[in-house]
């Protein structure tokens, strides 16, 4: 049930990508303005993930998860009912809040499952991020082909409500909570930093890397970061425990999550667009939107099937070896993509191999983090790890947009643009390999000192 919630909210990242060409006519807006339908979800998800993760640790993880699903359902209904761009962006912003479902679900699993089953549960929950993103494109493409565009949002609304009810009835509330006051000032500071940073990254291709707006956002980020760090280090109950975050096992795992997120997202962004390029380019296959989306489906299915395999590998060899293997498989997938992206079968093969590597890496990253954090900080720490993946995805989106818009021939992206994307993304996957391998075992001072969850003195939390 928790995995279902993660899959549904992950769908929100990609379901609008096939719809973007339709939105200028639907909303009567310029294409550049319509891109905010995607950007808004990314921004709200990045902000909500660490904030709601911390709130879940303090006030009850299931409670916060239920409220996030409520917002997803409301956002989906709003998107289905409107053709006004501001309201559509508002709805997409509410949908993005649901991205906190994955770290909240992972922390619930750690609290309620026996230790020997945690890796398996976390593997399935983590894989939902990639599964949802991978199947979002083909699902949305099929809906657009055979139904009204609003149907996609109605499907999301119904699914969100159904999962909300099921979680309320079937998922127990964890009694592991962290006492203290919520760091509202730290939340405002982190929100500002993430919004400024991600806007500068995601909009740099549209606004220009050297534009005053992008430079101003970058400068504001650089000013705010040390102030926010100073504030967090002085708080007895900070929003983000930076002393834990800089421990080598946690820090290296988060950096690995960033580069793996970068490598993963380029696979999703480039595949459908590559096969839809017109045949006049000399490399494009001229496929339809639906066919382009379906090229991602084998990868999504592979990710779902590999979750239990990844869990067994993690239990036997440890999470660092699983992450390293995932990074290696992703790099091999991009080698296939770089050398053999001229025919449909090889494009699908390369994209699927990258998806397989993503499944392995994503499933083990939270386990790698949990080995070095207290159980009372699971949601916040896994939320930060998820945030790092999202920052990597934002960087990947900017890189892909820059490559496809600047390397053009006769008005269309050149094949060199795609080769550059595959090369850079493969290099990112290669970087993740040593990062995972050098993650040290937590020192005695770094290891969680908590008692088992059922022995922790904690207040009962009602949903």
Salient structural properties:
76% helix; 463 residues; 2 domains; Growth Hormone, Chain: A; mainly alpha; two-stranded antiparallel ribbon
Q: Give the low-pLDDT segments.
A: 448-463
Classified in CATH, the superfamily of the largest domain is MFS general substrate transporter like domains
On the 0-100 scale, what is the average pLDDT? 81
Number of domains: 2
Biggest sheet statistics: 2 strands, antiparallel
What name does the CATH topology of the largest domain carry? Growth Hormone, Chain: A
DSSP helical segment count: 20
Q: What's the CATH class label of the largest domain?
A: Mainly Alpha
Secondary structure blueprint with pairings:
Elements: H1 2-14, H2 23-27, H3 31-34, H4 36-59, H5 61-81, H6 85-96, H7 101-112, H8 115-146, H9 150-170, H10 184-202, H11 204-207, H12 212-234, H13 242-245, H14 248-276, H15 289-294, H16 297-317, H17 319-339, H18 344-370, H19 378-406, E1 408-409, E2 412-413, H20 415-437
Antiparallel strand pairs: 1-2
Structure commentary:
The protein is mainly alpha-helical. It contains 20 helices and two strands. A hairpin with a 2-residue loop joins strand 1 (408-409) and strand 2.
Summarize the structure.
This protein is 76% helix and 1% strand. By secondary structure, it is mostly helical. The C terminus is likely disordered.
């Amino acid at each position: 049930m928790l995995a279902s919630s993660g899959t549904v909210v992950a769908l929100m990242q990609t379901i609008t990508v096939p719809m973007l060409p339709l939105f200028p006519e639907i909303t009567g807006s310029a294409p550049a303005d319509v891109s905010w339908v995607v950007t808004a979800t990314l921004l709200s998800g990045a902000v909500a993930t660490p904030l709601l993760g911390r709130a879940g640790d303090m006030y009850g993880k299931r409670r916060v998860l239920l409220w996030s699903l409520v917002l997803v359902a409301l956002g989906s209904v709003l998107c289905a009912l409107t053709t006004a761009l501001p309201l559509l962006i508002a709805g997409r912003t509410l949908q993005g809040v649901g991205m906190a479902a994955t770290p909240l679900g992972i922390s619930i699993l750690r609290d309620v499952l026996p230790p020997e089953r945690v890796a398996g549960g976390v593997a399935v929950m983590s894989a939902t991020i990639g599964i949802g993103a991978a199947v979002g494109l083909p699902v949305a493409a099929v809906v657009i082909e055979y139904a009204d565009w609003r149907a996609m949002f109605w499907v999301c609304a119904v699914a969100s409500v159904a999962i909300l009810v099921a979680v309320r009835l079937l998922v127990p509330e964890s009694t592991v909570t962290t006492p203290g006051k919520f760091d509202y000032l730290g939340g405002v500071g982190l929100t500002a930093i993430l919004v400024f940073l991600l806007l500068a990254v995601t909009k740099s291709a549209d606004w220009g890397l050297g534009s005053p707006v992008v430079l101003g956002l970058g400068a504001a980020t650089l000013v705010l970061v040390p102030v926010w760090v100073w504030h967090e280090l002085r708080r007895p109950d900070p929003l983000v425990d930076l002393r834990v975050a800089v421990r080598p096992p946690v820090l290296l795992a988060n950096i690995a999550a960033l580069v793996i997120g970068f490598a993963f997202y380029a696979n999703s962004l480039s595949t459908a667009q590559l096969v839809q390029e017109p045949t006049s380019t000399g490399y494009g296959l001229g496929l339809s939107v639906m066919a382009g989306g379906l090229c991602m489906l084998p990868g999504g299915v592979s990710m779902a099937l590999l979750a239990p395999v990844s869990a067994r590998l993690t239990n036997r060899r440890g999470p660092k070896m699983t992450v390293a293997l995932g990074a290696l498989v992703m790099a091999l997938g991009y080698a296939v993509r770089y050398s053999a992206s001229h025919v449909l079968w090889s494009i699908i093969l390369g994209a699927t191999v990258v998806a397989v590597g993503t499944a392995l890496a994503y499933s083990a990253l939270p386990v790698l983090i949990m080995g070095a954090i207290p159980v009372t900080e699971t949601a916040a720490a896994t939320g930060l790890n998820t945030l790092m993946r999202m920052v990597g995805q934002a960087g990947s989106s900017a890189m892909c947009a820059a490559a496809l818009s600047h390397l053009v021939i006769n008005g269309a992206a050149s094949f060199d643009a795609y080769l550059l994307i595959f090369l850079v993304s493969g290099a990112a996957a290669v970087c993740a390999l040593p990062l995972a391998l050098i993650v040290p075992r937590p020192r005695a001072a770094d290891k969680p000192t908590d008692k088992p969850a059922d022995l922790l003195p904690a207040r009962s939390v009602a949903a």
